[in-house]
Amino acid sequence: MKEKHYKSVFENEQELLAVLFDIHNEGKTIDCDPMYFKGNFYKDGIDQPKLCFDLNPQESWIKQADATNLPLENNSLQSIILDPPFLFGIHGKAKDYYSSKTHTIFKDFSELEKCYKGILSEAHRVLKKKGVLIFKCQDYTDSKTTMTHSLVYNWATELGFYAKDLAILVKPNKITNPNTKQRHLRKIHTYFWVFIK
Fold this sequence. Notes:
Blueprint: E1 9-10, H1 13-24, E2 32-33, E3 51-54, E4 63-64, E5 77-82, E6 87-88, H2 98-102, E7 105-106, H3 109-126, E8 127-137, E9 140-141, E10 145-146, H4 148-159, E11 162-170, E12 189-196
Parallel strand pairs: 1-11, 2-3, 3-4, 5-8, 6-7
Antiparallel strand pairs: 8-12, 9-10, 11-12
Helix pairs in contact: 3-4
């Protein structure tokens, strides 16, 4: 039988997740999504996790919980996925963008850092040894660029995670503002880190 060889860059989120599950989670669905929101990951063949939590559940069947303080035992999960907000410190015209109106926004970088460190620490607590953490993140530019994916790597490895893999999702249809002078490359990609406890 011919061996599969997957690429690291994708244009379809469900294809990306299916590949990560196949390579890093023995083809199984993720055990837990503690930041479920509207469940946009779970379509086109991607099954719902066994455990779904959210700080502000959108559906009655989703359990209410903070991803930094889950009602789960230590070392109880084989896999977990995190998809936290990435916008912070919105000001000026950026507050009028579509993404600013549809996504949670941290008031500043320190609030993002506190959240990310908290959810990484909690994921480390609830995962079994050799458990899998998939962490979606995006770099952010609003007058200056924050290389968030590099910070996530640093924070995760400081906790003892091993960074096993990294996939990139490209979304070329990002909205732009034609009235502004471009000073940075448009960030049309997101990262999916695969960390192992």
